[in-house]
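Final paragraph of the annual report: two paired records, presented back to back.
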Amino acid sequence: MAQAAYEERPRRRGRRALVVLVVLLLLLVGLLVVADRVAVGVAERAIADQVRQEVAKQDAQSSPPEVEVGGFPFLTQVLDGRYQHISIVLREVRGSVQGDAISLPRLDIDARDVRASLDTLRSGQGEVVAERVTGTGTISYDSLAALLDRPGLKLSEQGGKLAVTAPVDFLGQTFTITGTADVTVGEQGKVSLRFADLTAEGLPDVPLARQLLTNYARSISIDVPLPELPFQLTVREVRPLPEGLTVTGDATNVPINAAG
């Protein structure tokens, strides 16, 4: 019996040691995770400040940038000086274009394969460069309609097209115009709206009425005056969506900070 008790005590001590080791490892992992998340917060604030300076440098305006650094663990990215993915949100983006330029209520920027040394993040001096940047912003249909400045005109998305409805007076009667626009990206990233084949139910099919529709379509066919986008973004695609007209731009090898 004494021999069995003697053998049991070392086994218990071994189990206690294993439990202590597991607890210590869990604490160590927890501390590393906390340190990793704290480092992310520091980096996000540093990058947000760098982005704010770069936006101002490019004669654009926005609310303070919201930055989120992706990828885990973060500390290994710091040591490597390369970050997988950085998301930046700019709100109320306004550019250097004056007059009737439309502001973007929100611009979502996705920066991939970002190069930034630890010294750059710590001191604010040096370059933060993204190999590829894409940006997506949505223009509300109300702001587009206000730009067209036609009483009663409404814009919406129908079947993937930009649709218009508007009242028009002809020979003392009011008719409702309907139709869609061709939405394209032209030279220098300009977004073009071209309305054609407008119709109005009940409108007499006479030359004067047809000319009225043609003139109206011509008057609301415009190049949308977008603000100059930050980070050298050039508009590549535009799509009517239920929430508004969405524009997408991209750029490569882009500095996303004001290098010191």
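The closing record of the year follows.
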Amino acid sequence: MRVPVVQHSTRRRSARRRRALWSGGELLVTVGVVLLLLVVHQLWWTNREARRGAERKVEALERQWGNGGTAGDNADSGDTSTPSATQHPSTNTNTGSGTRQQTTTARQSRPNWSRAYAVLTIPRLGLRVPVAEGVSKQNVLNKGYVGHYRGTQQPGQAGNFALAGHRNTHGEPFRYINRLRAKDVVQVETKNATYTYSVDKTLPQTSARDSGVIRPVPRSTVKPGYGYSEPGYYITLTTCTPEYTSRYRLVVWGKLVSMRPR
């Protein structure tokens, strides 16, 4: 019987193939672990840290307002005014002796760039989050804050108080704003007053470049059937959609219904 002869070169080739397969397998496992850690970091750790930071900022603002302090955001170029009750039919306040209409105009300072200066509360979503000036990801949104579009109005002012927030990761404060319905309450607290808005309309999806939704009289330039045609006191909430993408924008609008001085 003939015995097969295995040459040394054949053995070496087989050993090299085994080493290559082993090394490739190790590389794939390493890449998989790294990707898993990145996912955990994005979906869990960033949310945890951003939410904790946002909660601490809300508490700090409330302490400063309670002590009569300024909340850390002084005027940088003068004051802007918010409407008085005589300028808007619904801005009444309740006192121990009944309902008393406000006749003085509330004043508020322009917030400094990237600094938290207000608190947004949405009871339906169990949300209570700081509002900061600007929509920078690094300096505002990634901290778990909601950002105010610079150039739009401030809380309670005639025009459009427009906000942006993450829908996923970094605290994801606006993850569930698609659940808001007409007449749901949205409140904005500043060191001077609490402004209450009532949800009015929702635009489920529009282009990320649809600047019409944050204009003083908000109306979509992509879907003109969504929006308003008359001046008013509006709030706009914007976030990315669908979830885990940034291709489109989801928009929720509301109208001011009351203003209560602090």
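The helical segments are 8-66. This concludes the annual technical report; the extension proposal builds directly on these records.
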